[in-house]
Amino acid sequence: MRILFLGDVVGRSGRAAIAERLPHLRLAWGLDFVVVNGENASQGAGLTAEHAKVILQAGADCVTLGDHSFDQKDMLQFIEQEPRILRPINFSKVAPGRGVKIFDATQGRKILVTQVLGQVFMKRPFDDPFSAVETILKTHRLGGAVQAALVEVHAEATSEKMALGHWCDGQASLVVGTHTHVPTGDAQILPQGTAYLTDAGMCGDYNSVIGMDKLEPLRRFITGMSSGRFMPAEGPATLSGVFVETDDRTGKALKVRMIREGGRLEQAAP
Question: Is 269 part of a structural domain of the chain?
Answer without folding.
Answer: no
